[in-house]
Specification:
Elements lengths: L3 H9 L6 E2 L9 E4 L3 H6 E3 L4 E2 L7 H7 L7 E4 L4 H12 L5 E4 L13 E3 L5 H22 L6 H16 L3 H6 L7
Parallel strand pairs: 1-6, 2-4, 2-5, 5-6
Antiparallel strand pairs: 3-7
Helix pairs in contact: 5-6
């Protein structure tokens, strides 16, 4: 016999019941993308849509601000899990004409008539490359030149800890100012 906790977790990890292929979305449908900002900057729909990161999504406000009157709302994420959570929120807020876009944005990758794809490396990857380079450089210089260079990897480590705790990243802010990230 399954425990109530296991059943709740199992239901939480299932995709939303109403799914729709992107090609079948009606013209009057509202499309809502609930991925994070870095994902959205890498690949986004050419079709008009709302973009609200899932942690910031408030279904009642969305229904009110969009003045929804029964038109379909099609929710999109990378694969369907976050879209399912947003769809459930909409349903709990009293809106029933909700779907998730089947297989998410991942299924639309490469379809340049449907999506914009940014060929620039993601900010997260850029930060990892720069942080790794600084740690490696500081470590090597500390071993072969002067032990004071060990402060460089320590500084980067402190920055990573702070970024994890505060959910902000000074290095990403600096990298965002580079010409290829604009």
């Amino acid at each position: 016999m399954e425990s109530a906790k296991f059943i709740a977790t199992k239901m939480e990890n299932q995709l939303y019941k109403n799914q729709i292929d992107f090609a079948n979305i009606p013209d009057n449908a509202i499309v809502l993308d609930v991925r994070n900002a870095s994902e959205h900057s890498e690949i986004a729909l050419k079709r008009g849509h709302y973009f609200i990161e899932l942690p910031r999504f408030d279904a009642k406000n969305f229904i009110k601000e969009c003045r929804l009157k029964g038109e379909p709302v099609c929710v999109l994420c990378r694969s369907g899990m976050r879209a399912s959570k947003a769809a459930v929120q909409l349903e709990k807020a009293g809106y029933s004409n909700v779907y998730i876009i089947k297989d998410g944005i991942a299924a639309l990758s490469g379809k340049l008539d449907i999506v914009y794809e940014n060929k620039v490396m993601s900010m997260e990857r850029q930060v990892r490359i720069v942080a790794g380079t600084l740690v490696l450089l500081g470590s090597v210089l500390a071993l072969v030149s002067n032990s004071a260079f060990a402060l460089l990897p320590a500084f980067v480590g402190c920055g990573l800890i702070y970024a994890g705790i505060s959910n902000t990243c000074a290095m990403a802010s600096l990298l965002a100012k580079l010409p290829w990230n604009k």
